[in-house]
Amino acid sequence: MNLRKFAAGATLATALLIGCLVITSATTGASSSSTLPDWSGQWENVGGTPDATGGFNQSLDQVLKQMQWSPPLNAATKAKVDGMQTRERARLAAVARGENPADAFTACTFGYPGLMLDTPLMFEVLTTPKETALIFSSREIRHIYTDGRQHTPKDRIWATPWGDSIGHWEGQTLVMDTIAVKDPYGPPDGGSSVSAFGDVEGFLTIGILTQQAHFIERMRMIDPGHLEDQMTIIDPANLTGPWHMKRIYERVENIHRMVYEDCEGEERNPIVDGRFTLTPDPDSSTKAPKKAPSSQSSPQ
To answer: Strand, coil or helix: what is 127?
Structure first.
């Protein structure tokens, strides 16, 4: 046997095998678990950190100045937003005077894109080869499918507060693509809004988007204590061009497991000396224990 020919043949076969593996990996769109970054731990938004009351350590004015906004609204959309801001600032002035606004309500769902832009929430990032999940302390979860699938077909998709998200990895950067977002609290035409929050009552609409808005994010770790998310919003109906925003999330050092917020049961967690406390159900002492059902049959 000619050893030189055998070696050349083996080299060619190896190259073809490697090529097939590369093509297969690119087709499925999934990265192997050994190449995925470790983003474990809890993260919170820099510039919008939570305080003990469930609000923000920063005032609304600080959030507006310190965080990047600058929406490229077209004239018609800007007129709508200006009107909304006028009403919202009047409400804030009433709150500052100690008045109780009639339109106050409890919001237990933040939705997207607010979850990534400005909320007093922590989140965890769970990376797997076929999906990355962003799990928030409000019990909301973003599912980013990285297995090569496309968006849900138009005849089967409907808008939700978190949208329909797919993605892929470019090295250590997660690229996320989101469509079909609907704000649970408005705007009235069924699209989504981008709002700034501060203090406990501070709230100001920054921009409104249609259900056709398209969101692209690039998330990466810039150092062991910080993640960066570069978001681009494309919505030709309401924007004059792409809307670019960047957010930095810092690692929460004093908490080592997810603590979910009890939004609807806040009366059971009064703040005492700046700390959450647990109050038993006031009716628990008067309720009789439930009896286990009998396993005996009734006499016939």
So the answer is: strand
Q: What is the pLDDT of residue 44?
A: 92
Please give the DSSP secondary-structure letter assigned to residue 152. Answer: P
Residues 6+ apart with CB under 8 A from 294: none
- What are the C-alpha distances in Å from 285 to residues 267, 281, 288? 18, 8, 8
Per the CB < 8 A criterion, the answer to whether 44 and 50 are in contact is yes
The residues spanned by each domain of the chain are 39-275
Phi, psi of 221 (to 5 degrees): -90, 125
Nearest to 104 by CA among 114, 96, 95: 95
Q: Looking at this protein, which amino acid is placed at residue 225?
A: G
164-170 and 226-234 as β-strands: parallel, antiparallel, unpaired? unpaired
d(CA 190, CA 181): 9
Q: Look-up: residue for tokens 């409400």?
A: 91
Tokens of 87: 């009403």
Cα 59 from Cα 223, distance rounded (Å): 27
Reported as a single tens digit per residue, the pLDDT across 101-133 is 766 656 678 899 999 998 888 999 999 999 999
- Joined tokens for residue 258: 């997810």
Residue 275, φ and ψ in degrees, nearest 5 = -130, 145
Cα distance between residue 200 and residue 49, in whole Å: 12
Give 3-state DSSP helix, strand, coil % of the chain, rounded to 5: 25, 30, 50
